[in-house]
Specification:
The protein has helices at 16-20, 30-39, 94-99, 120-129, 131-155, 160-171, 188-195, 199-211, 227-231, and strands spanning 41-45, 50-52, 60-66, 68-74, 80-87, 91-92, 106-109, 113-119, 183-184, 215-218, 221-224. The chain is an alpha+beta fold and 246 residues long. It has a four-stranded antiparallel β-sheet with strand order 1-8-3-6. It has a four-stranded antiparallel β-sheet with strand order 2-7-4-5. The protein has a three-stranded antiparallel β-sheet with strand order 9-11-10. Strand 4 (68-74) and strand 5 form a beta hairpin. Helix 2 packs antiparallel against helix 4 (120-129), helix 6 crosses helix 8 (199-211) and helix 7 (188-195) packs across helix 8. The chain is globular.
């Protein structure tokens, strides 16, 4: 396949292990599951490549098999706002798929990522035939609303430590990203893209959060030690000199 082929042209059927990692597959009845698996397609997005673009009509409901994506949009002043980071097992765009709208946000790969999709017509077929799928999507929509409200709050925070903490907490959402364990594989640069700060400021904020005992920096990522503290507000942190790297 040509390296210049589109995401759609690079699509393939999912492997059995990839299907097993999709969080909504277990809620389906056998006939529903067989139908859904036949409809699923997987593609590989390179770093910086867009999976969805503002103004494009919805064609698939997407999820992350492996990797990390960013959901963002620009306002009228040209300022970019990040709504969410999308790690493995995170599915997104259900509201757009429900209404068959155009995308109002961009989805961009921050690293090489395997992205799974089910056609929007198949998405609606499952809504029409599966009670379990309806419940899954309903929980997704409810949690997504809370996530977007939180994203607006994060965007208005001035303290880097709190911005980083709240962004990390959002990546550990058990409803939207059920496959994320207490260890997150992420680089400081990737986190900087999500938070909207420089890599240096993120480095300093991570050092402060580690000093507070909220996280522990490990090779290639970080471990969350106190998720509730990351979600909280009003705590004070004293920036520490950063002597580590992700």
């Amino acid at each position: 396949m040509s390296p210049h082929a589109s995401l759609y042209q690079r699509r393939r059927a999912p492997h059995a292990a990839e299907v097993a990692d999709i969080p909504w597959i277990p809620v389906l009845q056998p006939a529903e599951r067989d139908y859904a698996v036949r409809q699923l397609m997987v593609t590989e997005a390179e770093p910086g490549e867009y999976v969805c673009r503002v103004g494009k009509p919805v064609t698939y409901w997407f999820g992350v098999i492996e990797g990390l994506l960013k959901m963002s949009a620009e306002n009228s002043e040209g300022r970019t706002m990040t709504f969410a980071g999308l790690p493995r097992t995170g599915w997104f765009g259900e509201g757009t798929a429900l209404k068959r709208e155009i995308y109002r946000y961009d989805i961009q790969a921050l690293r090489k990522s395997s992205v799974c999709g089910i056609p929007v017509d198949a998405f609606h077929w499952l809504l029409d035939h599966s009670l379990g799928f309806n419940r899954f999507v309903m929980h997704q929509l409810n949690e997504r609303l809370a996530q977007f409200i939180s994203a607006r709050e994060i965007d208005r925070l001035n303290r880097p430590e709190e911005r980083v903490a709240r962004t990390l907490a959002a990546l550990f959402n058990p409803v939207l990203c059920p496959g994320v364990s207490d260890v997150l594989r992420i680089t400081q640069q990737e986190l900087a893209y999500l938070v909207g700060l420089s890599r240096q400021r993120v480095n300093e904020a991570l050092a402060a959060l580690q000093h507070q005992g909220f996280i522990r920096i490990e090779y290639g990522g970080l471990r969350v030690l106190d998720l509730q503290a990351l979600r909280g507000q009003g705590w004070l942190v004293k920036p520490q000199r950063a002597d580590f790297d992700l």
